[in-house]
Amino acid sequence: MDLDLLSTDRVSRSKGRSDSSSLWKACVKNKTLYLFLLPAIIWYIVFYYVPMYGITIAFKDFTIDKGILGSPWVGMEHFKTMWNSPEFTRVLRNTLVISGLKLLFVYTSGIVLALALNEIFHEKFKKLVQSVTYLPHFLSWVIIGSIMVELLSPSSGLINKIIMLFGGNPIYFLAEEKWFVPILILSDIWQSCGWGSIIYLAAIASIDQQLYEAATMDGAGRLRKMISITLPSIANVIVIMMIFNIGYIMNSGFDQIFNLYNPRVYEVGDILDTYVYRVGLVQMNYSFSAAVGVFKNVIGLVLVLLANRLARRFGQKGLW
């Protein structure tokens, strides 16, 4: 029995040395490619991993004059305060609602647009539609927010002028709770659906055209081919992108909401990111805001792991 264990141990060590040697040989062989990758690795280390030491202030009573090392430990005190805060409950609810609606409508809008573009056979018109739908992605939310404010202005906005033309009363869309979240979803679709369709268009382009030809010979129409060929062929890409989006479900879009919201819509529009900004930078309560950030990132990690596991259980490849 001991000899068998010793033999197994030797085999595992030999395999480990062999894997390390193979990895090193692969790195040497592709050294040029790894050199191109090096700046990105350094960037992640400097801006993502080194600052992770700063999350310790979530467990301290941090003050600027004492610094991170000099501030006293308070353990889970900030997390207890967070859970007992009705304001935190409100922003957590808003974050989940807005992120859920974005996952349902914004994420799927890229798939729908890709499927629609795939059905356009006039190349010039197809390129025109692609260019028009891609363009908003390259505009910052400062610009898009300004456009939305002008369009939705109750006094001079185009939308309200059309409403008044038909005898209606002007609506202050960005200051009414019932309109604010729909405006967020629609503006996000406009800004991101074109860019989001690129990956799905690339996946659709890789589908074997003989499948479509065989379906045509069997009498299948466009809708049937879309349902029976296109969607199943890109299902794995859809699942992987959904996992990525689920990982960001605790991030409802700080830039967008910060440029559009106001105190009148805090009840439905205030999210974790804007709450952290207000508490951490404006009120200078750094430890509490860090605790909220830690909570948000831990939940995001759990959701990614759960989504990946569910994807593999249902027969998809997942991320790993």
What does the model show?
Keywords: Cell membrane, Membrane, Transmembrane, Transmembrane helix, Transport. It holds the Pfam family BPD_transp_1. Belongs to the binding-protein-dependent transport system permease family. 74% of the residues lie in helices and 0% in strands. It is mainly alpha-helical. It folds into 2 domains: 1-59, no CATH class; 85-313, MetI-like (MetI-like fold, Orthogonal Bundle), CATH 1.10.3720.10. The longest helix has 33 residues, at 86-118. The chain is globular. The relative contact order is 0.11. The model has no long low-confidence stretch (mean pLDDT 84).
CATH level-1 class of the largest domain: Mainly Alpha
How many distinct helices? 16
Q: Which term fits the overall shape?
A: globular
Classification by helices and strands = mainly alpha
- The number of strands is 0
Q: Averaging pLDDT over every residue, what do you get?
A: 84
CATH topology of the largest domain, by name, is MetI-like fold
**Quick one: CATH superfamily of the largest domain?**
MetI-like
Q: Residue ranges: pLDDT <50 for 5 or more in a row? A: none
State the major sheet: none
Order of helices and strands: HHHHHHHHHHHHHHHH
Number of domains: 2
Distance between the termini: 35 Å
The helix fraction, in percent, is over 70%
Please identify, by name, the CATH architecture of the largest domain.
Answer: Orthogonal Bundle
C-alpha Rg (nearest Å): 26 Å
Beta fraction of the residues? under 5%
Protein name: ABC transporter permease subunit
Transmembrane segments: 32-50, 96-117, 138-159, 179-205, 226-250, 286-307
Subcellular location: Cell membrane
Membrane topology: Multi-pass membrane protein
